[in-house]
Amino acid sequence: MKFWFRLAVLSSLAVGAWAQSSAPKAESTPKSSALDAALFYQILLGELNTRQGSPGSGFSIMLDAARKTRDPALFQRSVDMALQARSGEAALQAAQTWKREIPSATEANRYVLQILLALNRIEESGKALAVSINELPLDEQAGAIASAPRIFGLVKDKALAADAVEKALTKAFTQKATVAAAWTTVGRMRRDAGQVSRATEAARQGHAADPKATGPLVLALSLLDNVNSSLKPMVDAAMKTDVTPELRLAYARSLVALAIRPDALAQLVLLNDKHPAFADGWLIHGLVLQENGQLPEAEKRLEQYVRLVGDIKTPEHQAGLAEALMSLAQIAQKNKQLDRANQWLAQMPTGADPIKLASRQADVLAQQGRLDEARQLLAQIKPTTAEQALRKVLAQSFWLREHQDTPAAYVLVKAALDKQPNNTELMTELSLVCEKLKRFDEMEALLRQLMALAPQEAHAFNALGYSLADRNIRLDEALQLIEKAVQLAPQDAYIQDSLGWVKFRRGEKAEALAILKAAYKAKPDAEIAAHLGEVLWVMGQQKEAGTLWREGLLLKADNETLLETLKRFNFKP
Fold it and tell me: Global pTM?
């Protein structure tokens, strides 16, 4: 990146960060003498040189005047001139001279820090950071420390940046007021550098130093995953204390992501009990319960959220209100209360997503048997952006696939893809359409193109592997593809379902059973229920299979995979 562009970005980060943590203070400077004619002429000459295209000469003249007067404004003008001349070293010289001549000038050291970062002199930047932080009053240092990851965010060598900042915070680690912020900052930078074990240790150190501090716990939540769950006991213990509602909600979200739903629901119950006025707790609790199939309980909590935020017009609450109303309409649909579903949709805020709203309205119309009206409603969506136009096509195609008009979906998506041949979302959708139409060669070509365009995305590997397994062909290749998807998204229950299914197709029934049970526990879903039930049936556990299939029908009564499975086994629910 060009030096002057890097500096512009870094300046905005550094100045903005310190502005949040510290109000500007008047610099203590020696009294300057009256501006005599010679000095006035020198400053004027420096400005004229700069304006006439010789910023280097103007810089030298202005810096000399700044030294003579020890005037902060002239030092700052010298730095600006050097930057105009695109000379990082000259700008650094001016800023360092400013700091040397006026040691109390905090602004000078901030310039030094920004310029050093722009010059990619990371170790020296760390020393400048230490000076800038230690110059602040103690009660303002924690805020400045927390801004360090943003200030060093453009550094390419993340590990080197973390080393430099950790050295800069040596003093902060010894002060009660700053120790938690220091360990949190170091942990964030170690995490971003891929040094997970060191980030984990930083979270522990910060929490041990100040158990009431939020920062180390937030860092710990960002590090929790199925591979690194060693911090969970520490977070669990903290959650037994009186933590903020925002932190408890963040933990519940992390547990949902980890598929530890019972613990997540327990945290959400506590959250609602301890902070009944905290609206977001009711929304997330309702959504998790809905995803868990506990619809009556979900409905109660979502209705409470609507009551709490109905008159609050902030964008965040209006977005939450739209999500809650959409879910309430969906629950009403499942209960065949279609008038009630329409009543919820009629309350949608004006800024609600037009694609989501029309899709839900079309779903209700379809459930009433008004298919032509539903299709027309989706066609009449008027997108205002290219992103909305794309989502409109995807919503139409999904509706057509769900309502047995897959050929029309093919024509629609193919036309859109012809205009945007490398659009991965359209390619993904068209591959699903092709599979339904049994155009397997075209589907495979699309998925392999997706693998080439987005090799870090798991979907294409999983989709092709699952299709091969489901057709009971090329099972070794299917396993390789699905295992690649598992590597890319190890927590995805649907990918685990594919893994269990290909194992079953290969005759590895016991392993398939264990994988599918875990997948269904993580994500109760009709299609996973179909696969798990089939494995149970074939292994002689017909009663358990029947129970599971009935659960699947409650989750989604029209799931094609489940219905086809019941038909093959002549199972009457």
Answer: 0.74
